[in-house]
């Protein structure tokens, strides 16, 4: 199978269902940003030294592929794509709660810095927030399952907590925002 198809050479791409749309179509922006997030999470996995965290990140990457396929599917009533369940959200929430218990109480805004894996996790968080904004925008014109929006929202929370955990695990201090600088 060839990797190039030449079908996108004129600036269009095909949704699941066959409709050709511009490469800047809202759906493509959404699942393209999910793909970008997935790639950044892959970098975090490669930098991570904690097997349990790596397993969660792998689970998240698979879930992001599920979300991407859902967002690419223009006719979910005709073509079935994998389903995102509340269990995916609950896993994130349980992990957030567990990690938060280990962390110092948050009393100030913190800068996304301090260690490469933590900083890269903050990059993931910001890309996740962009994906969330795009998906919410798409939901104004297209039905989007509520679990997708909730999952992406919760994922950005998870990534924030994970970035803090990475700093704690290597005994580095969080850098608090100084509004007077």
What does this protein look like?
This protein is mainly α and about 180 residues long. It has one domain (about 20-170): Up-down Bundle (Hypothetical Protein Ta1238, Chain: A). The protein is about 60% helix and about 5% strand. The chain contains five helices and two strands, in the order ββααααα. The protein has helices at about 25-45, 50-70, 85-100, 115-140, 145-170; strands at about 10-15, 20. Strands 1-2 form a two-stranded antiparallel sheet. A hairpin with a 5-residue loop joins strand 1 and strand 2 (about 20). Helix 4 (about 115-140) runs antiparallel to helix 5 (about 145-170). The longest helix has 24 residues, at about 115-140. The termini are far apart. The model has no long low-confidence stretch (mean pLDDT about 90).
CATH level-two architecture? Up-down Bundle
Spatial extent as radius of gyration: 18 Å
The fraction of residues assigned to DSSP E strands is under 5%
The number of domains is 1
Biggest β-sheet: count, sense, barrel?
2 strands, antiparallel
User: How many individual β-strands?
Assistant: 2
Mean pLDDT level = 92
Structural class comes to: mainly alpha
